[in-house]
């Protein structure tokens, strides 16, 4: 396979609510990959290291959510806009069903789509994020640092947040800091982040009688693999208990010496486990 670069894989899909940008690689059954949140995040940065492996088996589609500086912006809360963006994206590509991998926020969005449209997701893989704190305090250390950066975006606060994302601090390189800083401080992206991580919004309850998304996990029909870093300081491991018990066909794989970015920090082991799950009869 030819080298997968940012430019060679970038695509655009025009929709009635703006352009959705995404990266595409490989052939076969569709595999939708949904990124997390946080300063300077993109789908490409979350999954660029995993694309060569999964593209050998699947048609990989890495969607860039509105509000994070790649797809066209949204004036709505990014978490509210994201599930609808997924539906528009699948409809726009003519895909009735797909496997879905979601990292953190992307896992929550994938779970929301799988619960609301159970026949649309064949198999679901999440990376941290999904569920709710049962024993650990909330907001977690990583979320508190994210809020602090969003309120006062300094390079030092960005570095502190990045260290909370990983078990091995050597992963926080100058190159990583620079690419995250450049996008995180873009005015439109920062404004979107403040709609999501403003301190006043952090513990806001759903409006009216709307149940939280984690109360709907029992509606998911897809076989589900929950993947988690044992040392996750953003979404601590006890959050996995609710989805593990309430998603009917869920299994949990915990990776040692690993923080929030399992697909990066335990890349080979994670790819092996996920490929085995997705290709299992």
TrEMBL record:
GO terms for molecular function: hydrolase activity. Keywords: Hydrolase. The keyword Cell membrane does not apply. The keyword Hydrolase applies. Residues 30-265 form the AB hydrolase-1 domain. Signal peptide: none annotated. It holds the Pfam family Abhydrolase_1. PANTHER family: ALPHA/BETA-HYDROLASES SUPERFAMILY PROTEIN, LIPASE-RELATED. This is 2-hydroxy-6-oxonona-2,4-dienedioate hydrolase. It comes from Actinoallomurus bryophytorum.
């Amino acid at each position: 396979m030819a080298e997968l670069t940012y430019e060679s894989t970038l695509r655009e899909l025009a929709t009635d609510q703006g352009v959705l940008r995404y990266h595409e690689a490989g052939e076969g059954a569709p595999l939708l990959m949904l990124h997390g949140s946080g300063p300077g995040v993109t789908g490409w940065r979350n999954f660029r290291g995993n694309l060569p492996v999964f593209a050998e088996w699947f048609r990989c589609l890495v969607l860039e959510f509105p509000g994070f500086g790649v797809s066209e912006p949204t004036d709505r809360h990014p978490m509210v806009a994201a599930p609808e963006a997924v539906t528009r994206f699948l409809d726009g590509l003519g895909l009735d069903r797909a496997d879905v991998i979601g990292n953190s926020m992307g896992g929550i969005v994938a779970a929301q789509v799988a619960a609301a449209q159970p026949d649309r997701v064949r198999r679901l893989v999440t990376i941290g994020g999904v569920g709710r704190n049962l024993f650990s305090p909330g907001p977690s250390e990583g979320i508190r640092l994210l809020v602090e950066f969003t309120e006062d975006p300094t390079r030092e606060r960005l570095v502190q947040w990045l260290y909370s994302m990983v078990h091995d601090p050597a992963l926080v390189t100058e190159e990583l800091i620079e690419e995250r800083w450049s996008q995180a401080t873009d005015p439109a992206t920062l404004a979107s982040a403040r709609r999501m991580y403003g301190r006043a919004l952090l513990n806001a309850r759903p409006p009216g009688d709307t149940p939280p998304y984690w109360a709907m996990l029992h509606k998911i029909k897809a076989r589900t693999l929950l993947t988690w870093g044992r040392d996750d300081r953003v979404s601590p491991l006890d959050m996995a208990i609710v989805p593990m018990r309430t998603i009917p066909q869920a299994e949990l794989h915990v990776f040692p010496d690993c923080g929030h970015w399992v697909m990066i920090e335990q890349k080979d082991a994670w790819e092996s486990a996920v490929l085995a799950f997705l290709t299992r009869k």
